[in-house]
């Protein structure tokens, strides 16, 4: 299932690349309205690609969960065998040592499967607002094509708000600094 989803995702990525080329060609030929409609299609295809990406991640998570469940089952079976072997440990110490080594190896494998599962669970992808994404793609395509759209740019809304600047950390006042030094001395005294 994971392989099929990955193949579909790759196919969509190739279609997106071809569509971007087509949009650039339309822009270079001056067929802006057609290019703009194709950009809508591009935005839709990118949304589909995001869904496909999430499906691939979900398939990976499911695979990791199955591996973890299998490792847990094996570990429980080994624990049952160890319990049985421990009851007869006086008769065969070698079997007990062998069972302990096998149990240790299975616990390591289960821990690795659990790490893989947790990494897969923490992966994620955000979704963007389709209209905003469409506008971003449109601007990118126009920029790549080098099309002059002065008239369209004058109609665009320009943000007058300046980006916030990070302020430099303030120096502590002498009172704060002496208080901090006093706390440091009391901590060192402990």
What does this protein structure show overall?
The structure is a single chain. By secondary structure, this protein is mainly α. It has one domain (2-147). The protein contains six helices and no strands. It has helices at residues 2-28, 32-87, 93-122, 130-145, 150-155, 174-189. α2 packs antiparallel against α3 (93-122). The relative contact order is 0.10. Mean pLDDT is 77; it is low at 124-129.
The overall average pLDDT, rounded, is 77
The SS-based structural class is mainly alpha
Q: How many individual helices?
A: 6
Helix proportion range: over 70%
Question: Strands, helices and their partners?
Answer:
Blueprint: H1 2-28, H2 32-87, H3 93-122, H4 130-145, H5 150-155, H6 174-189
Helix pairs in contact: 1-2, 1-4, 2-3, 2-4
How would you sum up this structure in a few lines?
The protein is 79% helix and 0% strand.
Question: What are the salient characteristics of this protein?
Answer:
190 residues, mainly alpha, 6 helices, flat
